[in-house]
Known about the structure:
This protein has helices at residues 42-50, 92-102, 107-120, 136-148, 166-183, 194-200, 218-223, 228-233; strands at 4-13, 16-26, 31-35, 57-62, 65-66, 77-80, 154-158, 186-191, 203-208, 211-216, 238-248, 251-256, 262-265, 278-283, 289-291, 302-312, 317-322, 329-333, 344-348, 355-358. The chain is an alpha+beta fold. Helix 2 crosses helix 3, helix 2 runs parallel beside helix 4 and helix 3 packs across helix 4 (136-148). The two termini are 39 Å apart. The relative contact order is 0.11. The mean pLDDT is 92.
Amino acid sequence: xxxxxxxxxxxxxxxxxxxxxxxxxxxxxxxxxxxxxxxxxxxxxxxxxxxxxxxxxxxxxxxxxxxxxxxxxxxxxxxxxxxxxxxxxxxxxxxxxxxxxxxxxxxxxxxxxxxxxxxxxxxxxxxxxxxxxxxxxxxxxxxxxxxxxxxxxxxxxxxxxxxxxxxxxxxxxxxxxxxxxxxxxxxxxxxxxxxxxxxxxxxxxxxxxxxxxxxxxxxxxxxxxxxxxxxxxxxxxxxxxxxxxxxxxxxxxxxxxxxxxxxxxxxxxxxxxxxxxxxxxxxxxxxxxxxxxxxxxxxxxxxxxxxxxxxxxxxxxxxxxxxxxxxxxxxxxxxxxxxxxxxxxxxxxxxxxxxxxxx
Length: 359
């Protein structure tokens, strides 16, 4: 039996089904990410676990106890809101102590617990400040301490890093993960950011329109999305359409649509794929490599096209290439020094990095 069990969870708002027969089992101390775009149902699931919304159908159990009829304040579930929801008129100390005071815990015990969590989230010296006197990262730490000080059975994080700048997001990813592991608290995090999900979670569930599309460990979901839709969501922005001509020695030989170029793929492929099927091969821009020309010693998957744009993005440059196939090809380079707009460029597509799907 898992620590948190969600079975056939469904939520309807009138004629709209926000969550459709969703299932999730989470072990004690595990962190699970619900990943998906806006409106996919992930926050609705969080609110049903917390007790703020009543399921239309299905059950929620924590440590073997059914939660459906139990009010939020009796579930021992802590929720971390996207906007932190700190009390503006209370100091850091009193924000963190609020829940403990509501439980009428002895004053000395409150002081010790608050001090422990102030130290844990590195807020020493800020106990008397108000939220308006804190930075975004400090406010987030207060909200995190306020949630964790209650020693919840389950911690729910609703887009916890969305209000932070890029540098602080990375720092807080590390801190949240360390805290979660140190306290061994079962955690569900909702996010639309694939990198955030991969960095934080032990398991990822990708959702769309209330449905679960794929579940697995971060490496599996990131490297082997289950469909072209998921591949696009996970950053495989290059899609090459064609017809499967042959399967030999674990490699798939695909005739590219319109151009007729032969593409060799060695990544995962559907088990029922057969010769003559229409297929689509997907590859990340970061796995497309520039080469010196067709004289390169690699004999397969060398293609030439024309640069339509080079966009500098800070740590990488994106090179957009036309005419290699009938769809644009995108390449990411750390230090691009090749041809610019209109110039001819030759690229290599590693077969093992190409995933194959039925078109």
